[in-house]
Amino acid sequence: MSNLKTRDITQLALIAALYVAVTIAPGISAFSYGQVQFRVSEILMLLPFFNHKYSWSLIIGCFISNIFSASLGVADLILGTLATAIACLIITRLPAENKFLWAVPIICAVVNGIIVGAELHFILHLPFWLNFVTVGFGELVVVAIGAVIFYFLMRNKNFSKLIR
Amino acid sequence: MDKIILGRYLPGDSLIYRLDPRGKFLLTFYFVGIVFLANNIASYAFLLAFVLFAVYLSKINLGFFIKGLKPVFWLILFTVALQLLFTPSNHPIWHWGIFTLSNEGLVIAGYIFMRFILIIFISTLLTLTTTPIEISDSIESILKPLKKVKFPVTQVALMLSIALRFVPLLVDETTKIMDAQRARGVDFGEGGLIKRIKSFVPILIPLFVSSFSIAYDLAIAMESRGYKDGEGRSKYRVLNWSKRDNLTILFMAIVTVILLFLRSY
Q1: Which residues does B61 contact at the CB level (< 8 Å), separation at least 6?
Q2: Does residue B122 contact residue B31 with C-beta atoms inside 8 Å?
Q3: In CA terms, which of A150, B50, B94, B129 is 20 to 30 Å from B146?
């Protein structure tokens, strides 16, 4: 991290801003919040798989998005960001082979399901498994479709050069 | 668009606005923590009085806080209904199939509802009176001790503030790209789940390209102005910890003591 160049810093910051923009942009954000969340911007969770440094973008992007969102206030701010950080940590440990791409949606769904599910359980006494399923399902669907999209996108040489 | 630029910040001036953002940030978390200590009507009523007092001090219309509940209205309704109808009890008031309405259920539903209101109001108070930039500055300051374990605090803080600065620009860019793609016949927000998420691709790629080109220009601009790395840089916005912040902490300590008393009362 200490050897990040200025260009890396600006690039990571802009990707974080992109995550936030997609989360709050009118039109796409429509089904981002609620009991079953489909936060479309979570598609970007695939980025750390291809290039580890994007973990920073995801963590920062998630943090800023949660400042704007209202569901559980400051509890989301910390725990939501923590969930993203843990998911990124696991994703960056995956071997860089294409078949492991399909593990990313499962990791994201399980980590978010456990942490956000536990958060809702402790604060609102909602049954943990119900939260785990609703949160995890939304995440799984979005990131799984994201994995398919990225699988084909990365075949494009120019795009893949941009990311890696 | 203006609403997005400012996040949920509402310009104003009052005691709450003038508090140090670091203190405000940490005390908000502290408050969410002590909400869990409340266990009877007196303690919940006391905490509600405290939050309403803070709202009063902020000089912000209560309507803004009630508006903050809107996005979670269904979650609140669902939670309260679940507690009302599924709390097991030996003395049900009303019973039908798997549903049970009882005094215990009413009490628990009431407490959960109160907890919801307290946490959302106090969080709304933080985001209404603190700009996102102030929040990111206080994060940098709070994370500073992590420097000892080689956590790149200054670089993360810089990324956080650059990201905040460019969010409005990229939101603008996103809407522009969406309009351009609509003109080419792409349907957003229509069709099934998979179709809706797939329609994201024609936005994603142009957005990537334009973010990378902004990042490239920004990096050149920064380096030509002599940016090397985060170390030893001075600050434009300096956070000042003052007497009123100490007093606020003292006040919170008194609130905690009273809460502990009410709890065992």
Answers
A1: none
A2: yes
A3: B129
Q: What is the mean pLDDT of chain B?
A: 86
Query: With an 8 Å Cβ cutoff, is A125 touching chain B?
Result: yes
CA B83/CA B86 separation, integer angstroms: 6
Nearest-Cα distance to chain A for B10, in Å, is 13
pLDDT surpassing 60 at residue A131: yes
Residue boundaries of the structural domains of chain B: 13-129+240-262, 141-223
What is the value of pTM for the model shown?
0.87
Residues 15-74 (A) with a CB less than 8 A from some CB of B: 15-18, 20-22, 24-28, 30-31, 33-35, 38, 40, 43, 56-57, 60-61, 63-64, 67-74
For A123, the closest of B4, B115, B160 (CB atoms) is B115
d(CA B159, CA A58): 11
Distance of CA B130 to the CA centre of its chain: 10
- The per-type count for chain B, helices as H runs and strands as E runs, is 12, 2
Domain A4-161 class in CATH: mainly alpha
Residue B46 tokens, joined: 């006391």
pLDDT confidence of residue B105: 84
B47 within 8 A of B118, measured Cβ to Cβ: yes
The residues spanned by each domain of chain A are: 4-161
Phi, psi at residue A143, to the nearest 5°? Answer: -70, -35
Sequence-distant (6+) residues with CB within 8 A of A54 are A12, A15, A44, A47, A48
What tokens appear for B43 in the block?
């303690």
